[in-house]
Amino acid sequence: MQRLDINDAVAACRQTESLGSAECVTEFLQATASISGKIAAQLCHGARNLEPAHCFKASPLFYDDELKISLCKQAESTAPASCVESVISRIANQPSAKVALCRGATTSAPAACAIEAPFGMDETNLIVLCRSAASIAPASVVYVNAVFIGSHAQQQDYIHRQQPAMQGPSFSGFVPPSSVLLALPRPLYDLFTSNMDIPRADMSAWALLGLNEGEKSRAAIRRAYHRRSLEWHPDKWHALVAALPAQEGSMQDAVLAILRGVRNGSFYGTKVRAPHAMVMIFLFQKGSIRQKLRGVVRLTFEHSKNLALFVGVYKAVLAVLRVHKQHALGQHVASGVGKPGAHWHAAVAGGIGGYLVWGRYSSVNFQIVMYLMSRALISVVRVLAAKGYRPFAQHRFKHVYPLVATVVWAGVMWLYENEPNTLHPSLLKSMQFLYDESCRWKDGLVEFLPSPATTAVVLLTWLRI
C-alpha cells in the first residue's frame, strides 16, 4: 500500500473487515507497475483475497480499466476473465455486454450458456438468462427462443423464469387440442434453411423440423429443434472455426513456427546480451577498445546463437511429439501449432533442448542457467502454494520474502569471505570491488567522493526529474 496516496488508501480500505483489500492492492501494483493507485483502490475495495488483481491481469488487453474493474471487482478467481474470452458472436463487439454476462462468474458457464442460448434472444434477455448460470442448463431450457404456450401453469413449468412473453411476428405450430403449442420468432423460422430442404411459408412446424406430422412428444420436439439450431447456430460455427486451425495445423505451419522461433531467439539474444556485455566489459575489464569490442561481440553472438538454437530444438521436438500423438496414437490435439500437445511435452522438449544447447559449459550458458534456476524455483514454490501443498500454502510471500533475503545474503557473504573461489567469476569481481577495494585508499578525500554519474542520479532524483 506504500505506493498509494492517503486518499486512495482510504478508498481501498474503508469498511473492510480483513486485510484482503491491502493484499489485493499490493499484488495488483506489483504485477502492473504502470497502473495508478486510484485504479487499484477501485478494483480492490471490498476484496477478500488477491483474486481481483489476478482477474484484472488476465482480462483482455483491449478492455479499458473501467471495464476490467467492473468485470473483476470482488472476483473469487480468474473465471470472469476466462468467461469474457469466449467467442459469443451476438455480443462479440459489445465488451460491456460480455462484462455484464461474466461479472461474478465462478466458471466459464455463463459464456457456455450464452453460446447454447437461442440466437434470437436479445442482449438483455441473454444476460438475464445466463449471467448466474452454473451450467448450460438455463439455455437448454429455452432452446432457440421457443416458447411453450398454454395454461399459466404450463408456462411456469416450461418457460425459464424471467423470460418475457413472445413479441412480434411468429411462426406457430404443434397445436394438439390439449394446448401444447410452440411459437417461433419469425427471424428464427427463416434461420433454419438448407439447400436440401428450404422452408416454405406453407410448411408445418413438423416439416420444418423434420418430424412426423402430428408429433406430440415434447422430448422429440426439443431434440429436433436443438438439432436444427445446431446446424445454423452462428455461435457454434464461430467456436468450430476457432477450433479448426488448432486441430488441422499443417507441417508447413510447424516448420514456419520453428523458423520464426529461431529468428526471435537470435533477435532477443542480441537485444539482451549486447548492452549488458558492453556495460560489464567496459566497466570491469582491462584492455584496448578493440579487445573490449571483440569481447562484446563474442558474448553477444554466443547468447544469440544458443537462444536461437534452443527455440528451434524446442519447437521441433514439440512438432514431433504432436505428430506422434495425432497419427501414431490417434489422439486429438487441441492446442495451436507450435504449442505443446500435452502438458508433459513442454518438459520433454525443454529437457532435450537444455541438454543439447545449454549443457555445454561456458560463462554465458552458466549465467543463463543460474538466472533461470532461481526464477524457476520461486515459480515452483508459488505453484505448490496455489495448489495447497504444505508448508508453502501456509505462508504469504510478503512474510517469507524477508527470510529468503536474509538466508541468501547470509550465505553469499559467508561464501565470499570463506570460499570465494566457489563463486561465479563475474559475481566475485563485483564483490571484490565492493568489499575488498573499499578497505584500501590512496588518494585521500577523492576516494570518498561519489562518481559524477552517481552525483547526477542523486540530483535528478532529488529534483524529481
Protein topology:
Layout: H1 6-13, H2 20-31, H3 37-44, H4 51-58, H5 65-72, H6 79-84, H7 95-102, H8 109-116, H9 123-130, H10 137-142, E1 147-149, H11 152-158, E2 170-173, E3 181-185, H12 186-191, H13 205-208, H14 218-232, H15 234-247, H16 251-284, H17 289-328, H18 343-358, H19 363-386, H20 397-418, H21 425-436, H22 452-463
Antiparallel strand pairs: 1-3, 2-3
Helix pairs in contact: 1-3, 2-3, 2-4, 4-5, 5-7, 7-9, 8-9, 16-17, 17-18
Protein name: J domain-containing protein
InterPro entries: DnaJ_domain (IPR001623), J_dom_sf (IPR036869), Pmp4 (IPR019531)
Strand order of the largest sheet: 1-3-2
Helix content: 55-70%
Characterize the main sheet. Answer: 3 strands, antiparallel
Q: How many helices?
A: 22
Q: Which of globular, elongated, flat, extended, rod-shaped describes the shape?
A: extended
Rg over alpha carbons: 32 Å
How large is the share of residues in beta strands?
Answer: under 5%
> What is the domain total for the residues?
4
Q: What's the mean pLDDT score?
A: 72
Which stretches are poorly predicted, pLDDT < 50 over at least 5 residues? Answer: 137-199, 236-248
State the order of secondary-structure elements, H for helix, E for strand.
HHHHHHHHHHEHEEHHHHHHHHHHH
Quick one: how many beta strands? Answer: 3
User: How does the helix and strand content classify structurally?
Assistant: mainly alpha
Give the CA-CA distance, first to last residue.
24 Å
